[in-house]
Specification:
Bound molecules: flavin mononucleotide
Number of helices: 12
Distance between the termini: 29 Å
Oligomer: single chain
Strand content: 15-25%
Strand order of the largest sheet: 3-4-7-8-9-10-12-13
Order of helices and strands: HHEEEHEEEHHEHEHEHEEHEHEHH
Length: about 350
């Protein structure tokens, strides 16, 4: 079904296509027709961070920035949906155009710049959702938080702490985004000293909130695929010392490897999709070897087929997320990835050599 809709969406401006597709999806879900989009995966329970994921394939942050579509997204079969990035105050993001497709390479370049309605409005939207009002939750809800564009890094902790506090009562887990290339200076928060200072304040915030709410919400950190070996080693040290609950690897890249020939390659922003796969998986694998093995990893970046999801799990991911591949392939990608990871698990359990 998505294959029939995709050509029409591809003729539209990318941001308009995004809005139209999400609105259409909400409507179809409202009248119970979303099932026409394709098969949803059978349950494949995955326990991580003390949470039970119905399956290990999630939606990456950035598609539902304002947490306005979670009911329909869960209905498509995602095991988890990560909303955001959300900042304390609403902000418009960068001027348009700021989103560019490179269909031949199944890639996207974006410089959205954390356009979002602000954490308070997003929390209100989650509270209105069926997800919150129904009985059993259909999946795991992650809330991804960031700082406002005009907040200097020296004051960034206050932005993250504000978002942490607001997100804590509703989130199943919270992701700290310090790796978007589209907010000036943000990635500098990945440097060891800054990272240690920020994560330790957020850890303290979590302890306090856990006592207050009588519930522990896991704290994850999302990293860039452009870190060198020394950066990865330092980040691994910080994450291990401060006992973060998990790491999301990775965000988009500033590299243009694999799309150099495209006219779009000159656009500023982060590159995602198929050309990101190897770089992102390599970052994940290197971090895995430098991180305490009790800290699980979420593999994201370039997954466009089931085999790509399996490559992430082979490199050390317990969960995976998709964004760009989902735009080009639609919901069938969720089913394909869940089944590929399930097959790998069955083969490994039966002692058959690893499937790549
Ligand atoms: C248009 C667009 C917007 C994004 N916005 C965010 C964001 O707000 N926060 C975030 O952590 N990641 C954001 N991302 C990054 C994705 O979550 C993901 O890490 C990245 O795209 C790599 O995965 P993919 O190759 O499957 O797309 C965005 C990606 C795209 C394409």
């Amino acid at each position: 079904m998505y294959g029939l809709v995709l050509p029409a969406l591809m003729t539209m401006d990318p941001e308009r296509a995004h809005d139209v597709a999400l609105r259409w999806m909400d409507r179809a879900n409202g009248v119970g027709l979303l099932g026409l989009m394709g098969k949803t995966p059978a349950p494949f329970l995955t326990k991580v961070f003390g949470l039970e994921f119905p399956n290990p394939v999630g939606l990456a942050a950035g598609l539902d920035k304002d947490a306005a579509h979670i009911d329909a997204l869960f209905a498509l079969g995602f095991g988890s949906v990560e909303v955001g990035t959300l900042t304390p105050r609403p902000q418009a993001g960068n001027p348009q155009p700021r989103l560019f497709r490179i269909p031949q390479q199944m890639a996207i370049i974006n410089r959205m710049g954390f356009n979002n309605c602000g954490i308070d409005a997003a929390i209100a939207s989650i509270e209105r959702s069926r997800f919150m009002r129904g009985g059993k939750r259909p999946g795991v809800l992650g809330i991804n938080i960031g700082r406002n564009k005009d907040t200097p890094n020296a004051e960034a902790a206050a932005d993250y702490l504000y978002c942490l506090e607001r997100a804590y009562p509703l989130a199943d887990y919270i992701t700290v985004n310090i790796s978007s290339p589209n907010t000036q200076g943000l990635r500098e928060l990945q440097e060891e000293q800054a990272l240690r200072a920020l994560v330790s304040q957020l850890r303290d915030g979590c302890e306090r909130l856990s006592a207050q709410h009588g519930r522990r919400v896991p704290l994850l950190v999302k990293i860039a695929p452009d870190l060198n070996d020394d950066d990865i080693e330092a980040a691994g040290r910080v994450f291990t010392d401060l006992k973060v609950d998990g790491v999301v690897a990775t965000n988009t890249t500033v590299s243009r490897m694999g799309v150099q020939d495209s006219a779009r390659a000159r656009e500023a922003g982060g590159l995602s999709g198929a050309p990101l796969l190897d770089r992102s998986t390599s970052t994940l694998r290197r971090l895995r070897s430098r991180l305490d093995e009790s800290i699980p990893l979420v593999g994201v970046g370039g997954i466009c087929r089931g085999a790509d999801a399996v490559a992430k799990t082979a490199a050390g991911a317990t969960l995976v997320q998709v964004y760009t591949g989902f735009i080009y392939r639609g919901p069938s990608l969720i089913f394909e990835c869940v089944e590929a990871i399930r097959r790998r698990k069955v083969h490994r359990a039966s002692g058959v050599a690893d499937l790549k």
